[in-house]
Amino acid sequence: MNTLRVLRYAFETGWAEFRQDTWPPGWILRTAAQAAFFAMLGQLLDSPERLEYLVIGNMVVVGALATAIAVPQSTWDRFEGTYPLVVAAPSSILFPTLGRTSSRLVGAFLTSVIAFVILSWLFTIPRPWPEILALVPLLALTCFGTYCLMLFLGAVANYRPNVRNLVHNIATMSLMAFCGVNLPVSYWPGWIEVIAHGLPITHGLLAVRELLAGGAAGSILENAGLELLVAAAWLALAALVMDRMAESGRADGSIEFVG
Amino acid sequence: MRAIQGAIRVQFEITRHNVMDYYWMLLIPFFALIFMAVLVQSGRSDLLAYALVGPLLVGVGQMAFYVASEVLSRDRETQTLELELATPAPFALVVASRTMLLTSAGLLGFAESWLVARVVFNETIEVHHAGVLVASLVATTFAAAGTAVITSALFSLTRSARSMQNTVTYPLYVLAGVMVPAAFLPDWLEPVSKVIFLSWSADLLRDALSAESVNDFAPRLGAVLGLGAAALVAGSLLLGRMVDHLRHQGRLGI
Questions:
Q1: Cis-peptide into A128, omega within 30 deg
Q2: pLDDT at residue A89, as a whole number
Q3: Taking burial as the number of CB atoms within 10 A of a residue's CB, which of A25, A55, A128, A245 is the most buried?
Q4: Among residues B14, B64, B30, B17, which one has the least CA distance to residue A162?
Q5: Residues 125..184 of A with a Cβ closer than 8 Å to B: which?
Q6: What is the extent of the structural domain holding B230?
Q7: Of A29, A169, A182, the CB nearest to B171
Protein backbone atom coordinates (compact mmCIF):
# COMPACT_ATOMS: atom_id res chain seq x y z
CA MET A 1 0.00 0.00 0.00
CA ASN A 2 2.83 2.33 0.96
CA THR A 3 4.65 1.49 -2.28
CA LEU A 4 1.56 2.39 -4.27
CA ARG A 5 1.37 5.73 -2.49
CA VAL A 6 5.05 6.44 -3.26
CA LEU A 7 4.44 5.57 -6.91
CA ARG A 8 1.39 7.81 -7.05
CA TYR A 9 3.06 10.86 -5.49
CA ALA A 10 6.13 10.45 -7.66
CA PHE A 11 3.97 10.05 -10.76
CA GLU A 12 2.10 13.24 -9.90
CA THR A 13 5.43 15.09 -9.61
CA GLY A 14 6.58 13.73 -12.95
CA TRP A 15 3.24 14.46 -14.58
CA ALA A 16 3.39 18.10 -13.43
CA GLU A 17 6.90 18.38 -14.92
CA PHE A 18 5.71 16.76 -18.15
CA ARG A 19 2.83 19.20 -18.50
CA GLN A 20 5.12 22.14 -17.79
CA ASP A 21 7.69 21.02 -20.39
CA THR A 22 5.27 20.08 -23.13
CA TRP A 23 3.46 22.36 -25.54
CA PRO A 24 1.14 19.96 -27.41
CA PRO A 25 1.08 21.64 -30.87
CA GLY A 26 4.88 21.98 -30.87
CA TRP A 27 5.27 18.43 -29.64
CA ILE A 28 3.07 17.03 -32.44
CA LEU A 29 4.92 19.08 -35.07
CA ARG A 30 8.30 17.97 -33.82
CA THR A 31 7.24 14.31 -33.62
CA ALA A 32 6.02 14.24 -37.23
CA ALA A 33 9.01 16.22 -38.51
CA GLN A 34 11.56 14.05 -36.71
CA ALA A 35 10.09 10.86 -38.17
CA ALA A 36 9.75 12.46 -41.62
CA PHE A 37 13.35 13.72 -41.53
CA PHE A 38 14.66 10.15 -41.64
CA ALA A 39 11.76 8.61 -43.57
CA MET A 40 12.18 11.02 -46.49
CA LEU A 41 15.38 9.20 -47.40
CA GLY A 42 13.02 6.73 -49.07
CA GLN A 43 11.84 9.52 -51.38
CA LEU A 44 15.43 10.38 -52.26
CA LEU A 45 16.00 6.71 -53.14
CA ASP A 46 12.81 6.70 -55.22
CA SER A 47 11.89 3.30 -53.79
CA PRO A 48 8.37 2.68 -52.40
CA GLU A 49 9.61 -0.37 -50.45
CA ARG A 50 12.45 1.55 -48.82
CA LEU A 51 10.11 4.45 -48.09
CA GLU A 52 7.61 2.15 -46.35
CA TYR A 53 10.41 0.50 -44.36
CA LEU A 54 11.77 3.86 -43.22
CA VAL A 55 8.36 5.33 -42.40
CA ILE A 56 7.31 2.36 -40.24
CA GLY A 57 10.68 2.26 -38.46
CA ASN A 58 10.73 5.96 -37.68
CA MET A 59 7.11 6.34 -36.62
CA VAL A 60 7.62 3.57 -34.06
CA VAL A 61 10.99 4.74 -32.83
CA VAL A 62 10.07 8.41 -32.43
CA GLY A 63 7.72 7.46 -29.59
CA ALA A 64 10.00 4.89 -28.03
CA LEU A 65 12.85 7.38 -27.96
CA ALA A 66 10.67 9.94 -26.22
CA THR A 67 11.21 7.81 -23.09
CA ALA A 68 14.91 8.80 -23.19
CA ILE A 69 14.09 11.82 -21.03
CA ALA A 70 13.99 9.26 -18.20
CA VAL A 71 17.83 9.32 -18.23
CA PRO A 72 18.29 13.00 -17.30
CA GLN A 73 15.12 12.92 -15.20
CA SER A 74 16.65 10.18 -13.04
CA THR A 75 19.45 12.60 -12.15
CA TRP A 76 17.33 15.68 -11.47
CA ASP A 77 17.15 14.91 -7.74
CA ARG A 78 20.94 15.28 -7.65
CA PHE A 79 20.74 18.82 -9.04
CA GLU A 80 17.75 19.78 -6.93
CA GLY A 81 19.47 18.61 -3.76
CA THR A 82 16.63 16.22 -2.94
CA TYR A 83 18.55 13.03 -3.74
CA PRO A 84 19.76 12.41 -0.13
CA LEU A 85 16.16 12.78 1.08
CA VAL A 86 14.92 10.23 -1.45
CA VAL A 87 17.69 7.81 -0.44
CA ALA A 88 17.02 8.37 3.25
CA ALA A 89 13.30 7.61 2.86
CA PRO A 90 12.27 4.08 3.91
CA SER A 91 11.11 3.22 0.38
CA SER A 92 13.57 1.77 -2.16
CA ILE A 93 14.80 4.46 -4.54
CA LEU A 94 13.37 2.38 -7.40
CA PHE A 95 9.75 3.35 -6.70
CA PRO A 96 10.04 7.16 -6.64
CA THR A 97 12.22 6.97 -9.76
CA LEU A 98 9.72 4.68 -11.48
CA GLY A 99 6.80 6.89 -10.53
CA ARG A 100 8.43 10.16 -11.56
CA THR A 101 9.80 8.93 -14.91
CA SER A 102 6.80 6.81 -15.92
CA SER A 103 4.82 9.96 -16.72
CA ARG A 104 7.06 10.24 -19.79
CA LEU A 105 6.01 6.74 -20.80
CA VAL A 106 2.47 8.03 -21.28
CA GLY A 107 3.80 10.85 -23.48
CA ALA A 108 5.97 8.43 -25.45
CA PHE A 109 3.07 6.12 -26.21
CA LEU A 110 0.94 9.05 -27.38
CA THR A 111 3.86 10.24 -29.50
CA SER A 112 4.02 6.84 -31.24
CA VAL A 113 0.29 6.85 -31.91
CA ILE A 114 0.33 10.43 -33.26
CA ALA A 115 3.37 9.70 -35.43
CA PHE A 116 1.63 6.63 -36.83
CA VAL A 117 -1.58 8.52 -37.62
CA ILE A 118 0.22 11.43 -39.32
CA LEU A 119 2.90 9.51 -41.19
CA SER A 120 0.72 6.62 -42.35
CA TRP A 121 -1.61 9.27 -43.82
CA LEU A 122 1.20 11.36 -45.36
CA PHE A 123 3.04 8.40 -46.89
CA THR A 124 0.01 6.07 -47.47
CA ILE A 125 1.19 3.20 -45.31
CA PRO A 126 -1.21 0.18 -45.16
CA ARG A 127 -3.58 0.09 -42.17
CA PRO A 128 -5.19 -3.36 -42.25
CA TRP A 129 -8.46 -3.41 -40.29
CA PRO A 130 -9.09 -4.81 -37.65
CA GLU A 131 -5.49 -6.06 -37.30
CA ILE A 132 -4.37 -2.46 -36.88
CA LEU A 133 -5.90 -2.51 -33.37
CA ALA A 134 -3.07 -4.82 -32.27
CA LEU A 135 -0.71 -1.95 -33.03
CA VAL A 136 -1.78 -0.22 -29.81
CA PRO A 137 -0.31 -2.83 -27.40
CA LEU A 138 2.72 -3.31 -29.66
CA LEU A 139 3.54 0.41 -29.61
CA ALA A 140 3.02 0.48 -25.84
CA LEU A 141 5.30 -2.53 -25.44
CA THR A 142 8.07 -1.02 -27.57
CA CYS A 143 7.88 2.22 -25.61
CA PHE A 144 7.97 0.25 -22.34
CA GLY A 145 11.02 -1.77 -23.44
CA THR A 146 12.92 1.40 -24.36
CA TYR A 147 11.84 3.05 -21.11
CA CYS A 148 13.33 0.14 -19.11
CA LEU A 149 16.68 0.55 -20.89
CA MET A 150 16.56 4.30 -20.21
CA LEU A 151 15.86 3.63 -16.52
CA PHE A 152 19.02 1.53 -16.39
CA LEU A 153 21.03 4.23 -18.16
CA GLY A 154 19.54 6.85 -15.84
CA ALA A 155 20.73 4.83 -12.84
CA VAL A 156 24.23 4.61 -14.38
CA ALA A 157 24.18 8.34 -15.24
CA ASN A 158 23.82 9.09 -11.53
CA TYR A 159 27.51 8.22 -11.21
CA ARG A 160 28.31 11.18 -13.53
CA PRO A 161 25.17 13.37 -13.71
CA ASN A 162 26.92 15.96 -15.90
CA VAL A 163 27.02 13.57 -18.83
CA ARG A 164 23.32 12.64 -18.60
CA ASN A 165 22.38 14.21 -21.95
CA LEU A 166 25.34 12.67 -23.71
CA VAL A 167 24.35 9.24 -22.37
CA HIS A 168 20.73 9.42 -23.50
CA ASN A 169 21.58 10.88 -26.89
CA ILE A 170 24.22 8.25 -27.66
CA ALA A 171 21.74 5.59 -26.56
CA THR A 172 18.97 6.93 -28.80
CA MET A 173 21.24 7.31 -31.83
CA SER A 174 22.57 3.77 -31.30
CA LEU A 175 19.05 2.36 -31.12
CA MET A 176 18.16 4.22 -34.32
CA ALA A 177 21.25 2.93 -36.08
CA PHE A 178 21.36 -0.71 -35.02
CA CYS A 179 17.85 -1.90 -34.07
CA GLY A 180 16.26 -2.27 -37.49
CA VAL A 181 14.76 1.21 -37.66
CA ASN A 182 16.33 2.48 -40.87
CA LEU A 183 17.83 -0.71 -42.22
CA PRO A 184 17.68 -4.38 -41.24
CA VAL A 185 19.67 -5.56 -38.23
CA SER A 186 21.28 -8.19 -40.50
CA TYR A 187 23.09 -5.40 -42.41
CA TRP A 188 25.54 -4.90 -39.55
CA PRO A 189 28.44 -7.18 -38.53
CA GLY A 190 27.47 -10.29 -36.51
CA TRP A 191 28.58 -8.92 -33.15
CA ILE A 192 26.43 -5.81 -33.53
CA GLU A 193 23.50 -8.02 -34.53
CA VAL A 194 23.91 -10.04 -31.32
CA ILE A 195 23.90 -6.86 -29.21
CA ALA A 196 20.89 -5.48 -31.13
CA HIS A 197 18.84 -8.57 -30.18
CA GLY A 198 19.43 -7.73 -26.53
CA LEU A 199 18.19 -4.17 -26.99
CA PRO A 200 14.62 -2.89 -26.95
CA ILE A 201 12.89 -1.84 -30.20
CA THR A 202 14.49 -4.62 -32.28
CA HIS A 203 11.80 -7.26 -31.61
CA GLY A 204 8.90 -4.88 -30.99
CA LEU A 205 9.50 -3.15 -34.31
CA LEU A 206 9.75 -6.50 -36.10
CA ALA A 207 6.35 -7.39 -34.65
CA VAL A 208 4.90 -4.08 -35.93
CA ARG A 209 6.36 -4.64 -39.40
CA GLU A 210 4.89 -8.16 -39.49
CA LEU A 211 1.51 -6.91 -38.31
CA LEU A 212 1.31 -4.22 -41.02
CA ALA A 213 2.46 -6.71 -43.65
CA GLY A 214 -0.30 -9.16 -42.63
CA GLY A 215 2.18 -11.62 -41.03
CA ALA A 216 1.30 -14.73 -39.00
CA ALA A 217 -0.05 -14.12 -35.48
CA GLY A 218 2.38 -16.67 -34.01
CA SER A 219 5.43 -14.83 -35.28
CA ILE A 220 4.06 -11.46 -34.15
CA LEU A 221 3.42 -12.84 -30.68
CA GLU A 222 6.88 -14.41 -30.54
CA ASN A 223 8.55 -11.08 -31.30
CA ALA A 224 6.28 -9.30 -28.82
CA GLY A 225 7.27 -11.88 -26.19
CA LEU A 226 10.96 -11.33 -26.90
CA GLU A 227 10.49 -7.56 -26.57
CA LEU A 228 8.83 -8.11 -23.20
CA LEU A 229 11.67 -10.38 -22.09
CA VAL A 230 14.27 -7.77 -23.07
CA ALA A 231 12.28 -5.09 -21.23
CA ALA A 232 12.10 -7.23 -18.06
CA ALA A 233 15.85 -7.84 -18.15
CA TRP A 234 16.67 -4.12 -18.42
CA LEU A 235 14.16 -3.29 -15.65
CA ALA A 236 15.79 -5.82 -13.33
CA LEU A 237 19.24 -4.42 -14.13
CA ALA A 238 17.99 -0.88 -13.54
CA ALA A 239 16.63 -1.84 -10.10
CA LEU A 240 19.95 -3.45 -9.14
CA VAL A 241 22.10 -0.52 -10.26
CA MET A 242 19.82 2.09 -8.67
CA ASP A 243 20.10 0.54 -5.21
CA ARG A 244 23.87 0.04 -5.58
CA MET A 245 24.26 3.67 -6.61
CA ALA A 246 22.38 4.84 -3.54
CA GLU A 247 24.37 2.53 -1.26
CA SER A 248 27.77 3.56 -2.64
CA GLY A 249 26.81 7.24 -2.43
CA ARG A 250 25.85 6.74 1.20
CA ALA A 251 29.05 4.83 1.91
CA ASP A 252 31.52 7.37 0.47
CA GLY A 253 29.60 10.53 1.27
CA SER A 254 29.26 11.57 -2.38
CA ILE A 255 25.50 11.51 -2.25
CA GLU A 256 25.13 15.29 -2.15
CA PHE A 257 27.72 16.04 -4.80
CA VAL A 258 27.13 16.56 -8.49
CA GLY A 259 30.10 16.14 -10.80
CA MET B 1 38.78 43.88 -32.14
CA ARG B 2 39.89 43.34 -28.53
CA ALA B 3 36.26 42.91 -27.54
CA ILE B 4 35.83 40.16 -30.13
CA GLN B 5 39.03 38.44 -29.03
CA GLY B 6 38.02 38.64 -25.39
CA ALA B 7 34.53 37.33 -26.05
CA ILE B 8 35.84 34.39 -28.07
CA ARG B 9 38.43 33.60 -25.42
CA VAL B 10 35.87 33.63 -22.63
CA GLN B 11 33.49 31.40 -24.57
CA PHE B 12 36.31 29.01 -25.47
CA GLU B 13 37.25 28.64 -21.80
CA ILE B 14 33.61 28.10 -20.77
CA THR B 15 33.04 25.53 -23.51
CA ARG B 16 36.30 23.69 -22.99
CA HIS B 17 35.23 22.72 -19.48
CA ASN B 18 31.63 21.82 -20.29
CA VAL B 19 30.83 18.65 -22.20
CA MET B 20 27.24 19.88 -22.63
CA ASP B 21 28.58 22.54 -25.00
CA TYR B 22 30.08 20.15 -27.50
CA TYR B 23 28.33 16.83 -27.00
CA TRP B 24 26.26 17.37 -30.17
CA MET B 25 29.44 17.03 -32.13
CA LEU B 26 29.93 13.56 -30.64
CA LEU B 27 26.53 12.57 -32.09
CA ILE B 28 27.12 13.74 -35.66
CA PRO B 29 28.97 10.53 -36.68
CA PHE B 30 25.79 8.59 -35.76
CA PHE B 31 23.72 10.70 -38.16
CA ALA B 32 26.33 10.14 -40.88
CA LEU B 33 26.46 6.42 -40.12
CA ILE B 34 22.67 6.00 -40.41
CA PHE B 35 22.28 8.05 -43.59
CA MET B 36 25.30 6.51 -45.30
CA ALA B 37 24.32 2.96 -44.32
CA VAL B 38 20.83 3.43 -45.84
CA LEU B 39 22.31 4.80 -49.07
CA VAL B 40 25.02 2.13 -49.35
CA GLN B 41 22.57 -0.68 -48.57
CA SER B 42 20.28 0.65 -51.31
CA GLY B 43 23.16 0.66 -53.80
CA ARG B 44 23.22 4.46 -54.03
CA SER B 45 26.77 5.30 -52.95
CA ASP B 46 26.64 8.05 -55.57
CA LEU B 47 24.47 10.02 -53.10
CA LEU B 48 26.95 9.83 -50.21
CA ALA B 49 27.68 13.56 -50.50
CA TYR B 50 24.08 14.14 -49.36
CA ALA B 51 24.83 12.09 -46.25
CA LEU B 52 27.82 14.33 -45.56
CA VAL B 53 25.95 17.62 -45.98
CA GLY B 54 22.96 16.49 -43.85
CA PRO B 55 24.88 15.67 -40.63
CA LEU B 56 27.15 18.70 -41.12
CA LEU B 57 24.19 21.09 -41.19
CA VAL B 58 22.46 19.25 -38.35
CA GLY B 59 25.67 19.83 -36.36
CA VAL B 60 25.72 23.56 -37.15
CA GLY B 61 21.98 23.81 -36.44
CA GLN B 62 22.16 21.97 -33.11
CA MET B 63 25.12 24.08 -31.99
CA ALA B 64 23.15 27.21 -32.89
CA PHE B 65 19.79 26.23 -31.37
CA TYR B 66 20.87 24.19 -28.36
CA VAL B 67 24.23 25.67 -27.32
CA ALA B 68 24.73 29.19 -28.73
CA SER B 69 21.12 30.05 -27.89
CA GLU B 70 21.84 29.31 -24.23
CA VAL B 71 24.74 31.69 -23.69
CA LEU B 72 22.72 34.54 -22.19
CA SER B 73 20.39 32.43 -20.07
CA ARG B 74 23.49 30.74 -18.66
CA ASP B 75 25.05 34.15 -17.99
CA ARG B 76 21.93 35.04 -16.03
CA GLU B 77 22.13 31.80 -14.07
CA THR B 78 25.79 32.38 -13.19
CA GLN B 79 25.10 36.07 -12.50
CA THR B 80 27.72 37.28 -15.00
CA LEU B 81 25.30 39.14 -17.27
CA GLU B 82 25.48 42.32 -15.19
CA LEU B 83 29.29 42.30 -15.37
CA GLU B 84 29.15 41.77 -19.11
CA LEU B 85 26.82 44.72 -19.55
CA ALA B 86 28.96 46.93 -17.31
CA THR B 87 31.97 46.59 -19.62
CA PRO B 88 32.46 49.25 -22.35
CA ALA B 89 32.47 46.58 -25.11
CA PRO B 90 29.36 46.63 -27.37
CA PHE B 91 27.08 43.95 -25.93
CA ALA B 92 25.68 42.72 -29.28
CA LEU B 93 29.23 42.33 -30.63
CA VAL B 94 30.24 40.26 -27.62
CA VAL B 95 27.19 37.99 -27.94
CA ALA B 96 27.62 37.60 -31.72
CA SER B 97 31.31 36.69 -31.29
CA ARG B 98 30.44 34.05 -28.73
CA THR B 99 27.65 32.51 -30.85
CA MET B 100 29.98 32.58 -33.88
CA LEU B 101 32.58 30.51 -32.03
CA LEU B 102 29.97 27.95 -30.98
CA THR B 103 28.30 27.59 -34.37
CA SER B 104 31.68 27.30 -36.12
CA ALA B 105 32.33 24.24 -33.93
CA GLY B 106 29.51 22.62 -35.92
CA LEU B 107 31.82 22.61 -38.95
CA LEU B 108 33.65 19.70 -37.33
CA GLY B 109 30.70 17.70 -38.65
CA PHE B 110 32.24 17.91 -42.11
CA ALA B 111 35.42 16.11 -41.03
CA GLU B 112 33.47 13.63 -38.90
CA SER B 113 31.09 12.67 -41.71
CA TRP B 114 33.91 12.49 -44.26
CA LEU B 115 35.80 10.13 -41.95
CA VAL B 116 32.72 7.92 -41.42
CA ALA B 117 32.46 7.51 -45.20
CA ARG B 118 36.17 6.74 -45.48
CA VAL B 119 36.66 4.47 -42.47
CA VAL B 120 33.31 2.63 -42.20
CA PHE B 121 32.25 2.45 -45.86
CA ASN B 122 35.65 2.78 -47.56
CA GLU B 123 34.28 5.54 -49.77
CA THR B 124 36.00 8.85 -50.52
CA ILE B 125 33.77 11.89 -50.91
CA GLU B 126 35.52 14.27 -53.28
CA VAL B 127 35.37 18.04 -53.04
CA HIS B 128 34.94 19.23 -56.63
CA HIS B 129 34.62 22.97 -55.91
CA ALA B 130 36.80 23.82 -52.90
CA GLY B 131 36.19 27.58 -53.15
CA VAL B 132 32.41 27.11 -53.17
CA LEU B 133 32.68 24.75 -50.22
CA VAL B 134 34.79 27.08 -48.06
CA ALA B 135 32.69 30.16 -48.86
CA SER B 136 29.44 28.26 -48.18
CA LEU B 137 30.73 26.94 -44.85
CA VAL B 138 31.81 30.40 -43.69
CA ALA B 139 28.52 31.97 -44.79
CA THR B 140 26.52 29.18 -43.09
CA THR B 141 28.39 29.68 -39.82
CA PHE B 142 27.78 33.42 -40.00
CA ALA B 143 24.05 32.96 -40.68
CA ALA B 144 23.72 30.38 -37.89
CA ALA B 145 25.47 32.74 -35.45
CA GLY B 146 23.17 35.61 -36.46
CA THR B 147 20.11 33.42 -35.91
CA ALA B 148 21.47 32.31 -32.54
CA VAL B 149 21.69 35.96 -31.42
CA ILE B 150 17.90 36.19 -31.85
CA THR B 151 17.21 32.93 -30.03
CA SER B 152 19.68 33.66 -27.21
CA ALA B 153 17.83 36.92 -26.51
CA LEU B 154 14.47 35.11 -26.57
CA PHE B 155 15.61 32.20 -24.41
CA SER B 156 17.12 34.48 -21.78
CA LEU B 157 13.81 36.29 -21.37
CA THR B 158 11.47 33.40 -20.77
CA ARG B 159 11.65 29.70 -20.08
CA SER B 160 8.59 29.09 -22.23
CA ALA B 161 10.64 30.05 -25.29
CA ARG B 162 12.60 26.87 -24.62
CA SER B 163 9.75 24.72 -25.90
CA MET B 164 10.43 26.45 -29.23
CA GLN B 165 13.94 25.01 -29.09
CA ASN B 166 12.60 21.46 -29.20
CA THR B 167 9.82 22.31 -31.60
CA VAL B 168 11.57 24.11 -34.44
CA THR B 169 14.74 22.13 -35.11
CA TYR B 170 13.43 19.07 -37.00
CA PRO B 171 10.71 20.99 -38.92
CA LEU B 172 13.47 23.42 -39.98
CA TYR B 173 15.73 20.59 -41.14
CA VAL B 174 12.89 19.03 -43.16
CA LEU B 175 11.77 22.35 -44.68
CA ALA B 176 15.33 23.38 -45.49
CA GLY B 177 16.07 20.08 -47.20
CA VAL B 178 19.14 19.56 -45.08
CA MET B 179 19.30 15.84 -45.92
CA VAL B 180 16.72 15.34 -48.66
CA PRO B 181 16.51 18.39 -51.00
CA ALA B 182 13.53 20.68 -50.49
CA ALA B 183 12.54 19.91 -54.10
CA PHE B 184 11.04 16.66 -52.72
CA LEU B 185 8.60 18.65 -50.57
CA PRO B 186 5.18 19.75 -51.84
CA ASP B 187 5.39 22.86 -54.09
CA TRP B 188 3.44 25.05 -51.69
CA LEU B 189 6.21 24.69 -49.09
CA GLU B 190 8.87 26.07 -51.43
CA PRO B 191 8.44 29.76 -50.38
CA VAL B 192 8.92 28.69 -46.76
CA SER B 193 12.16 26.88 -47.62
CA LYS B 194 13.53 29.95 -49.35
CA VAL B 195 13.50 32.06 -46.20
CA ILE B 196 15.54 29.49 -44.25
CA PHE B 197 19.27 30.04 -44.73
CA LEU B 198 19.93 26.31 -44.27
CA SER B 199 18.09 25.51 -47.53
CA TRP B 200 20.46 27.74 -49.54
CA SER B 201 23.43 26.34 -47.61
CA ALA B 202 22.39 22.73 -48.23
CA ASP B 203 22.05 23.25 -51.99
CA LEU B 204 25.37 25.10 -52.22
CA LEU B 205 27.23 22.47 -50.21
CA ARG B 206 25.79 19.62 -52.29
CA ASP B 207 26.84 21.47 -55.44
CA ALA B 208 30.36 21.95 -54.04
CA LEU B 209 30.67 18.16 -53.75
CA SER B 210 29.20 17.49 -57.19
CA ALA B 211 31.29 17.20 -60.36
CA GLU B 212 28.84 19.42 -62.26
CA SER B 213 29.47 23.15 -62.52
CA VAL B 214 27.90 25.43 -59.90
CA ASN B 215 25.32 27.84 -61.30
CA ASP B 216 24.38 31.24 -59.83
CA PHE B 217 26.93 30.87 -57.04
CA ALA B 218 27.14 34.56 -56.08
CA PRO B 219 23.39 35.24 -55.63
CA ARG B 220 22.90 31.98 -53.73
CA LEU B 221 25.79 32.74 -51.41
CA GLY B 222 24.35 36.25 -51.11
CA ALA B 223 21.05 34.74 -49.96
CA VAL B 224 22.81 32.91 -47.08
CA LEU B 225 24.76 36.02 -46.10
CA GLY B 226 21.72 38.26 -46.48
CA LEU B 227 19.52 36.07 -44.30
CA GLY B 228 22.35 35.87 -41.75
CA ALA B 229 22.83 39.65 -41.75
CA ALA B 230 19.08 40.22 -41.36
CA ALA B 231 19.05 37.81 -38.40
CA LEU B 232 22.05 39.57 -36.86
CA VAL B 233 20.42 43.00 -37.12
CA ALA B 234 17.12 41.68 -35.74
CA GLY B 235 18.99 39.86 -32.98
CA SER B 236 20.95 42.99 -32.00
CA LEU B 237 17.75 45.02 -31.77
CA LEU B 238 16.11 42.28 -29.75
CA LEU B 239 19.11 42.13 -27.40
CA GLY B 240 18.76 45.86 -26.73
CA ARG B 241 15.06 45.45 -25.96
CA MET B 242 15.76 42.43 -23.78
CA VAL B 243 18.37 44.29 -21.71
CA ASP B 244 16.11 47.35 -21.35
CA HIS B 245 13.23 45.13 -20.24
CA LEU B 246 15.31 43.26 -17.65
CA ARG B 247 16.90 46.49 -16.37
CA HIS B 248 13.50 48.11 -16.05
CA GLN B 249 12.24 45.17 -14.02
CA GLY B 250 15.48 44.84 -12.03
CA ARG B 251 15.79 41.17 -13.02
CA LEU B 252 19.11 41.15 -14.88
CA GLY B 253 20.78 38.77 -12.51
CA ILE B 254 17.71 36.97 -11.26
A1: no
A2: 77
A3: A55
A4: B17
A5: 162-163, 165-166, 169-170, 173-174, 176-177, 182-183
A6: 2-249
A7: A29
Q: What are the pLDDT digits (tens) for B216-227? A: 999 999 999 999
Instruction: State the amino acid at position A100 in one-letter form.
Output: R
How close does chain A come to B32, measured CA to CA in Å?
A: 10
B26 to chain A: which residues are within 8 Å by CB? 166, 170
CB-based contact (8 Å) between A122 and chain B? no
How large is the average pLDDT for residues A106-135?
86
CA distance B33 to B48: 11
Segments of chain B with pLDDT less than 50: none
The pLDDT-based confidence of A255 (bands split at 50, 70, 90) is: low
Contact between residue B126 and residue B117 where contact means Cβ atoms under 8 Å apart: no
Residue B254 lies in a domain: no
pLDDT of residue B130: 94
Total domains in chain B come to 1
In tens, the pLDDT along A172-217 reads 999 999 999 999 999 999 999 999 999 999 999 999 999 999 889 9
CB < 8 Å to B38, chain A: 41, 45, 50, 54, 182-183
